[in-house]
Structure formats: structure tokens, C-alpha cells
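Show me any protein, fold above all:
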Amino acid sequence: TVRTGSAPAPNSSCQTAIPITAGVTAGNNVRAVSSDPSICGGDDDAAVWYTYTATASTMVEARTCGSSMDT
């Protein structure tokens, strides 16, 4: 999907990452933009960013199930 005239995704840079909590977080990279070079490191072409702060000292598993992108 190509969209013009739209603002970038609100979390399209690591400086504006959206905080998430444990559980399912649905998302996509529609309107994501590249911020090359990224201050988060690496090439983040059309990336969206999230942050997670653990509430306990335990294992955390992150999945990108169903993604057709190289995640």
C-alpha cells in the first residue's frame, strides 16, 4: 500500500517508541519511515519501535508471528 500526504507512524523512530506491556500487541509498519542512520543502531528501513520494561525478574518471549517481513 502506498499512501501519500500522511504523517509518519507515531513510533517510526526509536526516540518515539511506544511503551507496551505483557500480552499481545498488534501493530504494523504502515506509514513507517526510515531514519538511516538510526540512533538505535543498524538499518531501520520502514521500522516501528516499541519499548518494554519488565515488572519482574523472569523470562520474556517476543514473537513476530505471522509477519511476512524479515523481523
